[in-house]
Amino acid sequence: MTNLPALSAPDLAALLxxxxxHDIISPVGAIQSGLELLDDMPDxxxxxxxxxxxxxxxVAKLQFARIAYGASGSSTAQIxxxxxxxxxxxLMSFEKASLQWTGERAYVPKNIAKLVLNLLVVANASxxxxxxxxVTIEQLEPVARFTIAARGKPLRVPAKFRELLAGxxxxxxxxxxxxxxxxxxxLAREAGLTVSLEQGEESVLFRVEPAAQAAEPSLETDxxx
Length: 225
What we know:
CATH architecture: 2-Layer Sandwich
Number of helices: 6
Number of domains: 1
Distance between the termini: 24 Å
CATH superfamily: Histidine kinase-like ATPase, C-terminal domain
Number of strands: 8
Largest sheet: 6 strands, mixed
Low-confidence stretches: 215-225
Helix content: 40-55%
Order of helices and strands: HHEHEEHEEHHEEE
Structural class: alpha/beta
CATH class: Alpha Beta
Radius of gyration: 18 Å
Shape: globular
């Protein structure tokens, strides 16, 4: 399993809260700007369009975060993968890459659904605007197996994710920007799953499979980073 640095529960909660605020401050700020413009120019169509679009973006990000980062009920709660797909589609409709999602729909332990969504965020950050992210749910029972592929050029898998996957991070290096990939790998560890990364010249594949049946977590590169 990936060697993750230890964070206290208060630090983990605080950093995730910072990450959430970072994600929603932009659309909320745009809503405020649009409303201020409407104060000066009532019924201005461009200002109204800005408020509508930014409101939809903020709602999509919050709905996504509720499942990806939230408690989602008790410690034994299950999540419908159909709901996970819906919030992922909502988020990605405002992001730089398009989303393709295939696989069965079923209720799964919440950490499985949360892991899919958190790796989706990492994959989306790896490709430039106008490219594609593809989620393939291969199996959910009795154990989860899935892949997330990101296609585009140039590829830039977040450096913090690579550092964490390689087991090179320290507690002091985990900040509000690094907490999301940290949380993704923490979810994998809690679920007994292994994450590996395979990168080519124009695509990168995040593979998740049972830890007992996988090789050591790897970071394989077929082409230039």
